[in-house]
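Lab notebook, bench 4. The sequencing result for the construct came back, and we need a structural model before the next group meeting so we can plan mutations. Quick request posted to the team channel:

Model the 3D structure of this chain.
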Amino acid sequence: MRYLTYVGNRRLSQSLKTPAAFRSRTIQNFKQVTKMKTNTLLIVVLLSLSALSCSALKEMSGTMTNLSRTKFKLDTVDGFQLAGISLSGKSSFSVLDGAKLLTAYNRNELPAAFTLNIAAFNPNDGTGGTTQATSTLTSLAWTLILDTTLTVNGNIKDPIKIPGTGQQTIIPLQINLDLLKFFRDKGYESILNLALALGGANGSTSRITLRVKPTIQTDFGPISYQGEIDVIDKEFR
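Done. Here's the predicted structure in token form:
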């Protein structure tokens, strides 16, 4: 007896002596067809996953571009106190102030406390080819540098939203440090002059650099800037 079987468009013809042999050959052909379909399905799935991966990578690349557009600049110093003495509006120290400062100095300390305001700018306002987006700052690890001396460090306590409105968002950082600890070799008078330059009547942030490493929340999770940024008062970085 001659039995005909088909695999795809191919016709297989073989003289089989028994129905059992025919069944065995049919099962084998069925397995071959099933394997071909499985391989085809696997290829389709892999191609689909590849397309999704490319799309995800493109979206992540766009997110990173927007991330790098959020910039920072030093703004102002507020509420500067040295050994508990407010420097607001002061260009020099009174006799009473001098006595308090000298007492603190003799105790081997000159504690300073002030608020350093950081201006953050998110230009992703939907103009100039950008997509309007709010940046959520989840971390701002910082190190305070006075003149060229590294001093204290810290981080923000809570996430901060920086809207893409073209306007600045002010981030207040509370700073506490002992100036004598870091500037003992400069001398007593130099430390007082540094304090007045920062928080006195003509105080500014010109002698401050804030070294920061921002982390911003995205749809892919928190993403940190590559490297650290030295934030100054002259320009956004």
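The mean pLDDT is 83.
Will bring this to the meeting.
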